[in-house]
Amino acid sequence: MKLDLSSILTKNDVIGVACSGGSDSMALLYFMHKNQKKYGITVKAVNIEHGIRGESSVSDTNFVKSYCEKHKIELISYSVDAVNYSKENKLSLEEGARKLRYNCFHDAISKGYITKVATAHHAKDNVETILLNLFRGTGIKGITGIEENYQNKIIRPFLSLSKEEIEGYIERNKIPYVVDETNLSADYTRNFIRLNVLDRIKEVFPEYEKAVLRLSKRAKMDDDFLSSLAVKELTEEKNGYSFPLSLEKALFFRVATLALKNLVQKDYESKHITEIYNLLEKKNGTKINLLKGVFAIKEYDKIVLFKNDFNKEKEIPFKEGSFSFEHGKLLIQKIEKPANLKDGFYADESLFNGAKIRFIKSGDLFYKFGGGSKKLNDIFTDKKIPLRKRKFLPIIENNGKILFVANVGISELAKTDEKTKMVYKFTYEEF
């Protein structure tokens, strides 16, 4: 069996082979252990007893333990309760066991026992994954299949091999293994595909495995290209991301998915992407609550996805200093009145005794220089200040009269005159 693993292995790697005792994982453990000097790596075994099959499962773990002792392979063992975990988290037993298994892998890596985990997924597993994703309504990403090297932490050395090649390797090298009876049960979704679908397909399409994997490779090329375009269109914002309204639909969906994934990691669904896309037909400022405190808003020429992490409004006594807010920082400095009042925002110092810093309230009026009063919200609209930022812009008020508004300026009520000697200078820097 010829394999070149130089692209997924690095010298001095400590590889933990995920080993259940079944035929594929035992073949992988045997192969990796036999070739560790060739690649300059150290091989260990990682076994997880899922608590699903009672004594049978424990017996399989003991089999792996005995094999490792005999061949002087260090074993890292875990025991989990996949049944109760799946019930508590409303997952299928298959999915719950998988989540716990990968939690154990990441634990072994984070604690420094190993640097990478090697799983025994092979070409047929890859085909099963692609078909399952297809039947569940996947996009292009779903038909790219299992990654050979995931985040440089999870590797699949056998991914290019057929099940028949692995079985031949086991027979030639007389590799012992145990049979997991759940692999013979059609109760699990993947096993249903394996036992009831693939053999029938092979009767009509003997080379179906190779054909599906060719599709997978082409899909990966397309997915990588589209992903690179999506990354270019995504702009990081305070607590979120934005992207243009004008994107083509296919790219829009991909960019929206990337933004949502970055914000919540999981639990988002295709319906959430559709809800974001539907904002295109809504008026400016329309905001929707997607999930987990993540909002999407149509903001002039872009869509913004953000987490609302601000808990409550503040009211701060006015004083000199630097103040940080949700979207920016306000600097207040007391200085002598400069000769040039056009290079910044300056207000008469005598008008701020007892003033306070707050946020916008319903009915707030702002007195523009020489222009009378106007609703502050209307001024924000004129200046195209996004709705999501308006309620977090600092306002300085004294006795109900607004003297300064960040991103707007000084009120007519706070202007300097010939008697003014000292002023406050206001500088607002947006994050």
Describe the structure in brief:
This protein is of the alpha+beta class and 431 residues long.
Structure notes:
By secondary structure, the chain is α+β, with helices and mostly antiparallel strands. The chain folds into three domains: 14-212, HUPs (Rossmann fold), CATH 3.40.50; 234-307, Uridine Diphospho-n-acetylenolpyruvylglucosamine Reductase, domain 3 (2-Layer Sandwich), CATH 3.30.465.60; 316-430, Phenylalanyl-tRNA Synthetase, Chain B, domain 3 (3-Layer(bba) Sandwich), CATH 3.50.40. The chain contains 14 helices and 22 strands. Strands 3-2-1-4-6-5 form a six-stranded mixed sheet, with helices on both faces.
Write the layout of secondary structure elements.
Elements: E1 14-18, H1 23-34, H2 36-39, E2 42-49, H3 55-70, E3 75-79, H4 82-88, H5 93-110, E4 116-118, H6 123-135, E5 149-150, E6 154-155, H7 163-173, H8 189-196, H9 198-204, H10 208-233, E7 235-237, E8 240-244, H11 249-264, H12 270-278, E9 287-291, E10 294-299, E11 302-307, E12 316-317, E13 321-324, E14 328-336, E15 345-348, E16 356-358, E17 365-368, E18 372-375, H13 376-382, H14 387-390, E19 395-398, E20 401-405, E21 409-410, E22 422-430
Parallel strand pairs: 1-2, 1-4, 2-3, 4-6
Antiparallel strand pairs: 5-6, 7-8, 8-11, 9-10, 10-11, 12-16, 13-14, 14-22, 15-22, 16-19, 17-18, 19-20, 20-21
